[in-house]
Amino acid sequence: MRTFAALALLAQVCQLALAIESAPYDLVNSAETYEERVYPAQKWVTTSHLSISHQEATSDVMFRKLFNYIDGQNDAAIKIDMTAPVTTLVIPDEGPNCENNFTMSFYVPAAHQDNPPTPTNPDVYIEERPELHVFSRRFHGFANDEDWIVNAAQLHDDLVAAGEEGVDFQTYYTVGYDSPFVIIGRNNEVWFMKNDMN
């Protein structure tokens, strides 16, 4: 009976995960190990943190602040649906003690894009993210600091080998699509941004 209940709960979690609204994008090109995409200008709710560890910054500090925003800590006191992906911009060694600057964002759902509620936490703000042109590499499982670095390095090597030009390798995004409760089939990505010349 317990096994059945656990499987039923897992099925509900998976169903919720599939129903999450995702940020729209246009697929420009699909290579064997990466995709090239363009995300239109959209609003995201965002917060930042300096830390040595990706896991510490994202799990313990930033995610909680952003989740509180969608859970009602906003000037409208309303709950906002969770979306995907959760993006984290990583700027290496920007802090005074060589910490990385992590900037985590949740996509604001389409229903609130025109007029999102204002966060009540001063560490959280609505970001007007301009069009974003990225190269994306997908991998699976629970990601730790090493997984992000290894996959970013592999994407770097693949893009260099393919002769892709105008790529910003100084910063990168880590990207998650799944709730912490999703155990099987987790999807993660690393992104490098393309500097459009036109």
TrEMBL record:
Residues 1-19 form the signal peptide. Pfam families: SOUL. Keywords: Signal. It comes from the Eukaryota. Belongs to the HEBP family. This is Putative heme-binding protein 2-like. It comes from Penaeus vannamei (Whiteleg shrimp). The lineage of its organism: Eukaryota, Metazoa, Ecdysozoa, Arthropoda, Crustacea.
